[in-house]
């Protein structure tokens, strides 16, 4: 998921689906760790690509997050507690110093009904002061539309557009 925000810069998130069967917490923990490891790798690659794509425009803040809509924050915290290696990777990826703060920057099922996650993860870092109107427009055009416009030479002014054969015949008289 990529969010282009005028005030907060770029927000990139990896959505991972992890389901739980009642009573099977060890399998869930392993599945969560596996998906989170994959998300961390993908987010690191995404950050590199995004910063490269906007490097000629302005230094734009890129906020990374992991979206786990099928598990709670407590389940994520429990799964991360099984491996010091994944704890370090998640903290490094999300720019935090401890696991509790990293978990709060992940969007879990218990965060879906409140705006606290957005405030904590994105808005809490303050405005991206480098994002002027021109910079925002340039970034949006790179991700949403063509990066540049192409001029097509035309003999007539204004350019005549014909969409059907009937319109072409009517215009040329052939």
Question: What's this, in brief?
Answer:
This protein has helices spanning 25-54, 73-80, 84-94, 99-104, 116-121, 133-144, 165-172, and strands at 2-5, 9-15, 62-68, 107-108. The protein is α/β, with parallel strands linked by helices.
Tell me about this structure.
The protein has 174 residues and is of the alpha/beta class. It is built from 7 helices and 4 strands. Strands 1-2-3-4 form a 4-stranded mixed β-sheet. α1 packs parallel to α3. The protein is elongated and about 75 Å long. The chain starts with a strand and ends with a helix. The model has no long low-confidence stretch (mean pLDDT 83).
How does the SSE layout of this entry go?
Blueprint: E1 2-5, E2 9-15, H1 25-54, E3 62-68, H2 73-80, H3 84-94, H4 99-104, E4 107-108, H5 116-121, H6 133-144, H7 165-172
Parallel strand pairs: 2-3, 3-4
Antiparallel strand pairs: 1-2
Helix pairs in contact: 1-2, 1-3
Strand tally: 4
Structural class comes to: alpha/beta
Helices, by number, come to: 7
Uncertain stretches:
none
Fraction of residues in helix: 40-55%
Distance between the termini: 52 Å
Strand order of the largest sheet: 1-2-3-4
- Can you tell me the overall shape? elongated
Order of helices and strands: EEHEHHHEHHH
Please give the largest β-sheet: 4 strands, mixed
| Beta-strand content bin | 5-15%
Kindly list the characteristics that best describe this protein.
174 residues; alpha/beta; 47% helix
